[in-house]
């Protein structure tokens, strides 16, 4: 490990790619696993929690790590693909040590842990050597003073803390994509998960909920007070909110729908009225919809919205008034590739593809898959018998319904991604 830095900070390690000896990426770092015995002896780092293909989390022993530098981690390539299960004697650095309230023994200063450093001991084991502590903000300061001290110079790192905050863990999660943040939240101990959920803002929690398994979604939503649960559901895409509400007890579902804004609740109720695994149940009622008098420039401005998924941004749906679903008469779709080739000042109606058949809301999941495959589409319109646009089915909607409910926990076929072998 000649190029490995003498000291590595855990928060900076999270998210780094993990490579095998051939240079193929096999995963990403999500946490460190340590064995804490006392506040006097430096905890030994047992290994990394790595996320591999399919958002599966595995344990990578430090004996398999050959090099760590500023931007990547290298391993021997021999990884055990069993799903990581935390033992009672193990502690997660990011998940459980960040935000702990501690006291610096010599000065008596109280603060919270915002990072932890590890380094190699003389016997080549990795150990936690230093703790970064931040004091509470005072006066007009936005952030309190920080200290980096030896592990043994801090008290409060051992044992359970009843009221552990989540500020620094939230900061780490906010740097991740929603799917990655969901994976980390899924693996947190119950108390830490509750603290994180309480600290996340509604929009971010909605993004994360959409990426969690159904069991986690229900557990988290039922733990929220009804007002906040309704606010979070409003921030979710209507199709995801409908799927989640359908998994709740009927009386709970009615309470939450009654607390939601009427327009948001109406969209969700409409989606819930369709049979499961049909185009109507899978679709989103909020694709990019424009009138025929809109220009190409208008259309391109709408699809540039960073909150749109790539599949939703691939097509513009042109309809008569009203433009809220169910719309007026559906006229056709405009592909983004066609829009990019046309002068911005021309009307979007001139770039329509009106020759492609639409899906009916009762179309089965197999019919939706065949339709997308036949026309090489990543999205398709769903239209009722009167020619009104009801919404759009995207390929990610389709995959969410075609994959088994526990697909995130399943081991990938063929032993995993390139360069990963069962060890």
Automatic annotation (TrEMBL):
**SUPFAM superfamilies noted in UniProt:** CBS-domain pair (SSF54631), MgtE N-terminal domain-like (SSF158791), PRC-barrel domain (SSF50346)
The protein's matches in InterPro entries, at most eight in alphabetical order, are given as: CBS_dom, CBS_dom_sf, Mg_transptr_MgtE_intracell_dom, MgtE_N_sf, MgtE_transporter, PRC-brl_dom, PRC_barrel-like_sf, SH3_actinomycetes
CDD domains, alphabetized: CBS_pair_Mg_transporter (cd04606)
Cellular component GO terms, alphabetical: membrane
Tell me if Oxidoreductase is a UniProt keyword of this record: no
Q: Which domain of life is it from?
A: Bacteria
Print the keywords alphabetically.
Answer: CBS domain
| Pfam families linked to this entry | CBS, MgtE_N, PRC, SH3_actinomycetes
Domain called CBS: residue spans: 352-410
Gene Ontology molecular function: magnesium ion transmembrane transporter activity
This chain belongs to the protein called Mg/Co/Ni transporter MgtE (Contains CBS domain)
Lineage, please? Bacteria, Bacillati, Actinomycetota, Actinomycetes, Propionibacteriales
């Amino acid at each position: 490990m000649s190029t490995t830095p003498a000291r590595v900070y855990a928060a900076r390690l999270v998210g780094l790619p993990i490579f095998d000896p051939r240079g193929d990426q096999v995963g990403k770092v999500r946490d460190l696993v340590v064995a804490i015995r006392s506040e006097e002896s430096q905890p030994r780092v047992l290994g990394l929690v790595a996320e591999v293909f399919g958002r599966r989390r595995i344990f990578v022993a430090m004996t398999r790590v050959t090099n760590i530098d500023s931007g990547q981690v290298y391993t021997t390539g021999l990884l055990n693909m069993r799903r990581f299960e935390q033992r009672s004697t193990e502690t997660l650095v990011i998940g459980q040590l960040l935000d702990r309230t501690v006291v610096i023994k010599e000065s008596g200063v109280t603060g919270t842990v915002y990072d932890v450093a590890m380094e190699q001991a003389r016997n080549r084991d990795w150990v936690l050597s230093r703790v970064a502590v931040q004091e509470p903000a005072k006066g007009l300061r936005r952030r309190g003073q920080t200290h980096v001290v030896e592990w043994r110079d801090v008290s409060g790192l051992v044992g359970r803390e009843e009221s552990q905050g989540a500020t620094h863990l939230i900061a780490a999660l906010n740097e991740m994509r929603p799917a990655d943040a969901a994976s980390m939240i899924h693996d947190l101990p119950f108390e830490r998960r509750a603290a994180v959920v309480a600290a996340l803002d509604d929009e971010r929690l909605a993004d994360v909920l959409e990426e969690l398994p159904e069991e986690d979604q229900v557990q988290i939503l039922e733990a929220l007070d009804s007002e906040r649960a309704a606010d979070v559901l409003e921030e979710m895409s209507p199709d995801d909110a409908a799927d989640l509400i359908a998994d709740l007890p009927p009386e709970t579902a009615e309470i939450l729908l009654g607390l939601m804004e009427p327009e948001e609740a109406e969209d969700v109720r409409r989606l819930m009225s369709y049979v499961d695994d049909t185009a109507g149940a899978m679709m989103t009622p909020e694709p990019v919809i424009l009138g025929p008098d809109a220009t190409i420039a208008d259309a391109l401005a709408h699809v540039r919205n960073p909150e749109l998924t790539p599949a939703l941004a691939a097509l513009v749906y042109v309809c008569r008034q009203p433009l809220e679903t169910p719309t007026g008469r559906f006229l056709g779709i405009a592909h983004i590739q066609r829009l990019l080739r046309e002068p911005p000042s021309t009307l979007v109606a001139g770039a329509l593809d009106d020759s492609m058949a639409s899906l009916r809301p009762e179309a089965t999941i197999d019919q939706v898959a065949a339709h997308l495959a036949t026309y090489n589409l990543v999205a398709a319109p769903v239209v009722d018998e009167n020619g009104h646009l009801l919404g759009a089915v995207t390929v990610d909607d389709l995959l969410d319904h075609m994959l088994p409910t526990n697909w995130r926990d399943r081991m990938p076929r063929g032993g995993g991604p390139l360069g990963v072998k069962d060890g």
